[in-house]
Design brief:
This protein is α+β, with helices and mostly antiparallel strands. The chain folds into two domains: 80 residues, PAS domain (Beta-Lactamase, 2-Layer Sandwich), CATH 3.30.450; 117 residues, Beta-Lactamase (2-Layer Sandwich).
């Protein structure tokens, strides 16, 4: 406990601290809350809060505390364990920040992004993909990728998944077509990446889909001018 809180010895900690709530807890109210919880139960488990070290720096800790009572049932003493989880908290915050940034990029992209299970059934997709196909996320989750692509592309795409995605983890960028909800078809570019589960087994795919209707139109106009 002394080491975690930055004191040279248990004796220094005990001699230096006269008010645990104000000197040890970053928020004195959390000390009061711990005691309130012990009034209701004999122990408190996995209670996360911030603590103040000797040098004033703040750390995150998790408490396991039990209370002792006198014969009248009054709380007279507490005993517990403190684990420093500052690195874990920092890693978690970094992960959340990365996820937030990824989510912003994912939703803000003009390209469509979609994720499927190993059978091709949609699991997730971004707003751009919904907009370009005309489907809601909920409706797409009842469909598979082959449901929204013309049959003439199915064999080619199966071969790409088998010979590229499953072998090296991703496909080359390739051209395909997408069937919109209203039945119209537009040309698209796509690249598919393999998703593996914790055991390293293939679990699904994610990929981007870019509407290249304008690109195709310009190419056709350029050919007419030649």
């Amino acid at each position: 406990m002394a080491r975690i809180l930055g004191y040279d010895s248990p004796e220094e900690l005990m001699n230096s601290v006269s008010n645990i709530g104000k000197q040890i807890y970053a928020d004195p109210g959390q000390r009061d809350n711990t005691l309130r919880l012990l009034e209701q139960s004999d122990s408190v488990s996995n209670y996360e809060c911030r603590f103040r070290r000797k040098d004033g720096s703040i750390i995150w800790g998790v408490l396991q505390v039990r209370g002792f009572r006198d014969t009248a049932g009054r709380l007279i003493r507490t005993e517990g364990l403190l684990e420093d989880i500052s690195e874990r908290k920092q890693a978690l915050e970094s992960l959340r920040a990365s996820e937030k940034k990824f989510r912003e990029l994912y939703e803000g992209s003009r390209d469509g992004y979609a994720m499927t299970d190993i059978t091709g059934r949609f699991i997730e997709c971004n707003s751009a993909f919904c907009e370009m196909t005309g489907y809601t996320v909920e409706k797409l989750q009842t469909l598979t990728y082959p449901d929204i692509t013309p049959e003439k592309h199915h064999e080619t795409e199966r071969e790409l998944l088998k010979n590229q995605a499953l072998k090296r983890g991703y496909t080359d960028v390739y051209e395909t077509e997408i069937i919109k909800k209203d039945g119209t078809v537009f040309p698209a570019e796509s690249r598919v990446h393999l998703i593996r589960n914790e055991a390293g087994e293939p679990a699904g795919f994610w990929g981007f889909i870019r509407d290249i209707s304008e690109k195709k139109k310009l190419q056709a106009e350029a050919m007419l001018q030649v």
